[in-house]
Amino acid sequence: MPTLKISPPLKMRAAQIKVLLMDVDGTMTDGGVTLLSQPDGGALEIKTFDAHDGQGLTLAATAGLRTGCITGRESPALLRRAKEMKMEFVYMKQPVKMPAYEEIVRKAGVTDPAVAYIGDDLPDIPLMRRVGLAIAVGDSVPEVRKVAHYTTKAMAGHGAVREAVELILKSKGLWGAMIDKARA
Amino acid sequence: MPTLKISPPLKMRAAQIKVLLMDVDGTMTDGGVTLLSQPDGGALEIKTFDAHDGQGLTLAATAGLRTGCITGRESPALLRRAKEMKMEFVYMKQPVKMPAYEEIVRKAGVTDPAVAYIGDDLPDIPLMRRVGLAIAVGDSVPEVRKVAHYTTKAMAGHGAVREAVELILKSKGLWGAMIDKARA
Amino acid sequence: MPTLKISPPLKMRAAQIKVLLMDVDGTMTDGGVTLLSQPDGGALEIKTFDAHDGQGLTLAATAGLRTGCITGRESPALLRRAKEMKMEFVYMKQPVKMPAYEEIVRKAGVTDPAVAYIGDDLPDIPLMRRVGLAIAVGDSVPEVRKVAHYTTKAMAGHGAVREAVELILKSKGLWGAMIDKARA
Amino acid sequence: MPTLKISPPLKMRAAQIKVLLMDVDGTMTDGGVTLLSQPDGGALEIKTFDAHDGQGLTLAATAGLRTGCITGRESPALLRRAKEMKMEFVYMKQPVKMPAYEEIVRKAGVTDPAVAYIGDDLPDIPLMRRVGLAIAVGDSVPEVRKVAHYTTKAMAGHGAVREAVELILKSKGLWGAMIDKARA
C-alpha cells in the first residue's frame, strides 16, 4: 500500500462525511461469487473479505464514522463479517439500492453531502450520483469511475475500502490518533 | 476494466448474435477446480464465479439475448449460479460438446451465425469453428486464440464474459439503454 | 499462455519420458494450503487445482504417458482430482519422497531417464537429481530451479503442469494428434 | 522467488534471533478473511496458508528456532496449521498483542533482541518497536513498513514468512545444512 495523497477539493468533500456506505461483491470482496456444492443439490455461499479493509472499518467505527452496506445478495457470511467490523447498517437482497439508501439516511439523520458510497458496477451509479463523496474501487467498470469523485489505487477486496476509510479520516484529521487505537 | 473498442467487421458479426453460449471452467471461472475434502473420503465441488460477469449476463437476458453453458463437469454450484444469471441452457457432463450445441441451436430455432461461444481450451475448438462469433478469454491456450474472432482483454473469471456481453450489446446498440436497467 | 519453444537438448530428454511424476502443493496447486474450520474444532482440507493442467494430464494419459504424484499431505480432494485426471500413481503422506519414487519406477518397469518430475521446493530436489527430466514450476524456490533441466513459464496451479505435458508430448511429436482427442 | 541478499547490519540482528513470532491474517495468509455461510445462519472460517511458508517454518523448528503467532481472530483452521508447522506458541483472540508477547518472552526465557516479529498492519506496530528484528511483509501498510528493520520482497501468504525464516537461518549460517533436512 502506497501512502495516500488527497487533493484540497477532495479533502473538503471527505471532511464532511458522517456515514460511509458501500456495495459488497466487487467492493468489499474481489468480486468472486463462490458457491460450495451440497450433497442435496443446493449450494452454500462463501465470501472472502480483506483483513486490511476490516481493520479500516473497525477504526472508522472507533472514530465515530457510521458504516453500512447495501447489496443484492444475501448470506450469513456477510452478516458475521459486518458484525465483526461493527457495521451499523446492513441491507441485503436489494436489487434496487435507492430505497435502502433513503432509509439509512433518514435513520442516521443526515443529508446527502454527509454520506460517502463505495461501488464498482452499474447498480451503484444512482447512489453515487447523490452522495457527497462517491468512491469507485480500482477495478470498477468505466461507467462507475466516470461518476466517482475518487477512484482508489487499491483493488476491491485488496484494500479499496481501507483506502476510502483513510481518505475520510485523514481529511477529518483523525487518522493519526487512530493508529494507537487499532486492535487486532 | 478499460473501455471496449470494436472494429467494424467484428461489430457486424456481433450484431447478429441471438444466443450466447460458453464453457464454464476457465471461462466463467478462473480455471480453479476447487474440492473440499469430506470426512467420509469424498469431496464437494466449490466454484468461484465473477460478480461483473454475473451483472453482464443478467443484463444480456434483460436485453433479450439467450444465454447458456456447456461443460464437462457437473455441480450444484453451477446450477445455482446459472439460475441467478437467468441462463436458459445448462448442459453439464458433456465430454464432447457438439451434441449439446446442436440441441441448443435446434431448441432456440437459430443458425450458426446467430450464436456466439466463449471458450478457453481444446474441447471448445470444434464449436468455435462453427459459431458466428468465437470468443477466446484473455488467458486461453494458443490453439483456442487461433480460431477466435475476438480475444477478450479480461481474464477468465475476472470479467471476460462481461466483456463478451458488452461486445454484443454495444454492437447491437443496446448497451446504453441497459445501464439504467441494471439490478444488484 | 504463450506458445512453447523447446531447445534440441531438452527435446532429446523429453522424448524419452514414459512416466510423468509430480509434487502436489505448490506444483499442481498454487501453494495455497486451505483449511475449513469445523464446529467440532477440526478442519477439512480444500485444494484448488487448475483446469488447464487437468486437460493436459488427461491428454497425457490418452497419449500413453503414465502419470502420478508424490506428496507429504493427504486429502480426499487430491484423490478425487487424481482420479478425474486418470493418474495411475498416487502416493500421499510421504515426508521423504525417494521410497515412493523407487516403488513407482519398479512398478512401471522403467529406469530414471524415462521419468520426468515436476517440483517446487526443497523436498523435491533428491528426485529431481535422479530423473531424466527435472522440471521446476515458474514460482519454485531458487534451489529447485538450480537442479532443473527446465523451468516452466507458467506458475504452479496456473498451467505449469500443462506446460510440462506439452513439452513432453511435443518432443515426442504427439501433441498435434492429441488436440482433436481432447474431451471436456 | 529471487535469491535473498542480506546487509551486514541486518545479518547482525538476524543472527541473534531465537524466537520467531508473527501475525496471522495478512502475514501468514494473504489477508483474505473467508467465511462459509451455514444453513443455520452461522458461518465457518476458512484460512489459506502457503506451502512455501510452511516448509520454511518446519525447517525453522528443525534448526532449533522457536516459532509462534499472535492474532485477534480464532479458528480451528489456524490451530491445525500451527500444529503441522510445529509452532510452539499460538495465541488467538488477542485484540491487544503485548500481553501475549510478554508471556511468550517469559516462557521462552529470552529478551527482546532475541525475538523477531513479522507483521502487516497497525496492531503489530507496538511489538515491532520492541523486538530485535521487526519484519514487514511486502504488502504491509506504510505505517508498519516505517518501523520495520526489513520488508520482505514476497507478499503475505505467498512466501513472506519463508523469506523471513531464510533471512534468519542464513544469518546464522544454518540454511545450507537445512536443505537436506527438508521433509514434504
Give an account of the 3D structure:
The structure is a homotetramer of 184-residue chains. The first copy, chain A, has helices at 8-15, 51-62, 76-84, 98-108, 125-130, 142-147, 160-171, 175-179, and strands at residues 19-22, 32-37, 43-50, 66-70, 89-91, 115-119, 133-136, 150-151. Chain A has 184 residues and is α/β, with parallel strands linked by helices. Chain A has a single domain (8-179), classed as HAD superfamily/HAD-like (Rossmann fold), CATH 3.40.50. In chain A, β6 (115-119), α5 and β7 form a beta-alpha-beta unit. The longest helix of chain A is centred in the first third of the chain and has 12 residues, at 51-62. Chain A is globular. The mean pLDDT of chain A is 97. Chains in contact: A-B, A-D, B-C, C-D. The A-B interface holds A 23, 25-26, 29, 31-39, 41-43, 46, 70-73, 94-97, 120-125, 139-143 and B 1-3, 36, 44-52, 54-55, 59, 75-77, 79-81, 157-158, 162, 179, 182-184.
Q: Tell me, what's the shape of chain A?
A: globular
What order do the strands of the largest sheet of chain A run in, or round the barrel if closed? 5-4-1-6-7-8
pLDDT below 50 for ≥5 consecutive residues: which ranges of chain A? none
Query: What is the number of helical segments of chain A per DSSP (H or I, 4+ residues)?
Result: 8
Q: Please, how many domains of chain A?
A: 1
**Quaternary form:** homotetramer
**Largest β sheet strand count, sense and barrel closure of chain A:** 6 strands, parallel
Gross CATH architecture of chain A: 3-Layer(aba) Sandwich
Portion in helices of chain A:
25-40%
